[in-house]
Inverse folding.
């Protein structure tokens, strides 16, 4: 039986024989008794196996190594130990797979750097067991929130020929034989797989908009790519992004959705990942659960970029970067403003020159109906906007930015064929998992990280 | 309010004023009365708006074009019409966005070929509305099945440096400036983004196995790529695949899971997509609902490849391809065998030479513990196997196949560090959606299809 279920229902099995499978997490013997910490990973918490000299296999049992896989049959007994309510007294076992002596994951503290090099083994540690389970729960919570609320999940394409947002940050995809390019005068992309230059998407938003014009409420959730040469603790070349898009929804409505969704996902993880959260609270970020619970109970502040700059200018702080109307805000400003309001802050109506072409222009000619959600301790968690639904304004803005509207005819045509008020946002999923787990390096919240010069496993 | 909700609860609103947003699907006037078929896409079924000469906006209303987006306030009235129980009598409206005269999606039958060219508009048709909603429901059903049953969702990487299965079918990913390659003697991949040659994954299985060795029960569900130059109705260069991997599970256990999961997903779509299914049953595949209901109620047959060949050889059929022990089976054989058993058939223990290196070798030296699920009307829907958990046998098989085990050291190391009986399968998600919807061309079950020379939108 699964160890998670045995932990939940052990009382029904006291005195009875059970068969469990799993791996040895720790193994110690003392005066004729052996104790094995054992888990199959179905839950965070394992069980204790015990055996004594009376067991005919005592000798072979006592030599079992950490990391080995066993199939064990034994009797469930109430335990006197402080750490567990019950234990399983081994009657018989099968060694499914030994762990060789050089098994790297020993029951001691390993550095995260070391574990990154052993990324294929690190989910076997308590830390990564907790992190990746929270990741899985948060993924499902996102799906559940949107499905319950009538959204359509749309798989926007990964391969794309348009590069509207990620100028210069797009991975190119090809089936051309690069070796054979060495002799040619000009590269003939008509001979490439798709007959033209293609790359990996930097956002599914534009395609999601086409579906919002049919289903009103849609979301994408999938991998996204940036070929940005950044070796920081917060950048990945491959990451997951969640992007809802909602027709007949303005910026106020969008903020309602962002707030409700975030609270839903956090609540889901707190309720369904109790043991993992308790572990992370104890060993990774003290106060993690309080931080998350506080956020769920808070009302998110809504304030314009202009008001934020005024607050920053009036603050009695010596800024590294002087806050300015019409400019972006720095990390130190984000931090100050979330502390100022002691909670999450939606900052709206940003200067148009620092935001994307598709955002709805305000009448002032200077700002757009963009919104960033700033969260204490993590900074920007979501970025969204009401979209420019006016054909002429959209095309004019593209011209101002030197964009060729013909390459995106399908996108701007949405404004010719039943355009409407609509809004959407994006949330980098790893950023959320970092917030949920307290993990500070983005490499440690994704199974296999891809960064400059790292594409292992 | 959302039109889906109004349809569900219209009785509560009879005689009351409501505001709805959506698009005009059809518009006709007759003797001083106008009728508008109206939907926001939140559900399959729309509503009818009516207005008469008494409306001060009669003139402008009567000129509204199909495809236009409106925000309408009106009174809910019981309707005398046969097609609807209620209608909304327009009091006032705002034209959110006109549809220009050249709007391609008119209320008539469009060919699927035409709609592929207009892929960004096709979700607005009834057909694609139904198909993409079933796709969304099936996606969620997969997540819900696995999460309810204690599986961990693992996001296996898309970018990868290993190409174990898809020799020659892998898209290459690069940030090298291809133009600059023209002068060089040798391509220096150490200067590429990842410092080596990388491509797009053809399967997440191997990485999923690493997580199964920590969590016991995991699944991946994400985009997968094949640079196969196939222009058929069943191949895509980019498609979604679902791959569970389960530790301490043998081939029999795997088949139990496959059967249970498939039935769960089908039931979920039948229950949550009633209107869509009824439409698809009427207009796409007559008998679709019966077909699906029958499958859910059936017990899947389990039979070995050898037995299948014997049945085929004994059949009174003139085969285009003669069935042979030790060889793969053809489409005509798949069809025969599902008809022979009048239901889904698991075919097990395939000749090892036509299956992948990682499958568990049987003692006969000839076969592996692979299983394909053959389903009436669609053929192979899932492919899986018990994995070879023995280090020596796995490496020996890799050598036989001329593979370099050093490139996959992490994968074969799983057999050194607590290896165990484990199994998994893969299901091409589009294949499932085709089966669920009756759609015969794979291009019509994915939002934006990628095939040779097609990478639009």
């Amino acid at each position: 039986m699964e160890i998670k279920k045995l932990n939940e229902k052990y009382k029904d099995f006291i005195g009875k024989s059970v068969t469990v499978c799993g791996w040895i997490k720790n193994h110690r013997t003392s005066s004729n008794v052996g104790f094995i910490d054992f888990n199959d990973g179905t839950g965070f918490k394992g069980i204790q196996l015990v055996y004594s000299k009376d067991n005919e296999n005592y000798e072979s049992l006592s030599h079992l190594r950490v990391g080995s896989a066993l199939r064990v049959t034994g009797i469930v007994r109430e335990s006197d130990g402080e750490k567990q309510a019950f234990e399983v007294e081994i009657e018989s076992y099968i060694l499914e797979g030994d762990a060789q002596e050089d098994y790297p994951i020993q029951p001691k503290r390993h550095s995260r750097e070391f574990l990154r090099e052993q990324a294929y083994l690190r989910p076997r540690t308590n830390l990564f067991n907790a992190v990746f389970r929270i990741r899985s729960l948060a993924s499902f919570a996102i799906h559940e929130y949107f499905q319950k609320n009538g959204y359509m999940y749309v798989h926007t394409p990964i391969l794309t020929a348009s590069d509207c947002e990620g100028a210069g940050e797009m991975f190119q995809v090809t089936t051309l034989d690069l070796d054979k390019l060495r002799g040619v005068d000009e590269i003939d992309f008509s001979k490439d797989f798709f007959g033209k230059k293609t790359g990996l998407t930097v956002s599914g938003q534009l395609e999601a908009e086409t579906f919002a014009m049919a289903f009103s409420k849609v979301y994408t959730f999938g991998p996204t790519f940036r070929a940005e040469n950044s070796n920081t603790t917060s950048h990945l070349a491959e990451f997951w992004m969640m992007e809802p898009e909602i027709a007949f929804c303005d910026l106020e409505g969008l903020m309602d959705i962002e707030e409700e969704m975030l609270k839903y996902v956090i609540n889901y993880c707190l309720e369904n990942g109790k043991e993992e959260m308790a572990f992370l609270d104890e060993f990774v970020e003290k106060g993690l659960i309080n931080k998350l619970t506080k956020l769920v109970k808070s009302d998110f502040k809504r304030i314009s970029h202009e008001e934020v700059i005024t607050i920053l200018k009036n603050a009695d702080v010596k800024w590294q970067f002087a806050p300015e109307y019409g400019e972006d805000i720095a990390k130190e400003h984000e931090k100050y403003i979330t502390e100022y309001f002691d909670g999450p802050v939606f900052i709206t109506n940003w200067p148009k020159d620092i935001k994307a072409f598709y955002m709805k222009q305000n009448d002032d000619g200077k700002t757009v109906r963009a919104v960033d959600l700033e969260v204490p301790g993590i900074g920007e968690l979501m970025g969204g906007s009401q979209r420019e639904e006016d054909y002429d304004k959209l095309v004019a803005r593209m011209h101002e930015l030197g964009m060729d509207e013909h390459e995106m005819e399908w996108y701007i045509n949405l404004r010719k064929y039943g355009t409407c008020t609509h809004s959407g946002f994006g949330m980098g999923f790893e950023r959320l998992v970092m917030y949920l787990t307290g993990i500070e390096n983005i490499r440690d919240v994704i199974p296999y990280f891809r960064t400059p010069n790292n594409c292992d496993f």
